[in-house]
Amino acid sequence: MKTTNRRSFIKGIAAATAAGLIIPETLFAMPTKKTIGIQLYTIREMVNKDFEGTLKILSDIGYNSVEAAGYGDRKFYGYEPQEYSKICSDHGILPLSSHSGINLENADVVIEDTAEAGMSYLVLPSIPKEKRQTLDDYKRLADEFNKIGEKCKKAGLKFGYHNHAFEFSQKLNNEMVFDIIMRKIDPKLVALQLDIGNLYNGGAIAADVIKKYPNRFETIHVKDEIPATEGDEKYVSCILGKGIVNSKEVIDMATKSGSVKSYIIEQESYQGMSAMDSVKEDLAIMRKWGY
Hints:
This protein has one domain (3-288): Divalent-metal-dependent TIM barrel enzymes (TIM Barrel). The protein is globular and about 50 Å long. The longest helix has 20 residues, at 3-22. It contains 11 helices and 14 strands. The N and C termini lie far apart (41 Å). By secondary structure, the protein is of the alpha/beta class.
């Protein structure tokens, strides 16, 4: 089968699957009827040891989508794109998105694999430090993002960018880097994935960012943060509702803006709990909040 035909076939299956997964019968009571997924980096040790077994646990808990963080050698967690998609589907989980190191040089290959895996979003998780030193660097990056976004659009994907802390702590010409990025990217080609926890280490407040940029965030990394007791960061993630983010208020605000398509729970530190117990509690809290 030709690549283009295979891609169309896989995307057709993914679209049909997604239609059933986004609003299954068990979710009709939810006011938002959006996917609640998990960034698989959260439970990376379990995923790397037993991918299929971990997906079954996630499905049993109630997660209905996943965001990959294990793409390499044209595979997702060691599986060919079509196989990865089938495994997710077999467990009733939508392969929503992937964090992948994409640039103009590898864009065509990464986009093809992501589309064949039946995903909707291809997200760049961060920018290497050496590529983000000057204002000209960010101008080049914004141009690259728009070009990659155009390529993704032609393949039926949406290109996304996920923030960390530096976008809010670094200033150039007295302008915050996040504002520079937002001003220069084409919102029709680049979907922002707002990590509502990471930005606190850059001195920002999630609610303020959403107020400043309503209708610009399509996916949300749902987090909460507490002060760090060790390491270089000021804050580390915790169970939703236990920290300083006011996570419910923030995601309510983002939801009301009308742009959010999916919520993706991510927790990177666990305060003595297991990773899986933590994300189980996180999902239960999201449900309690009405999502």
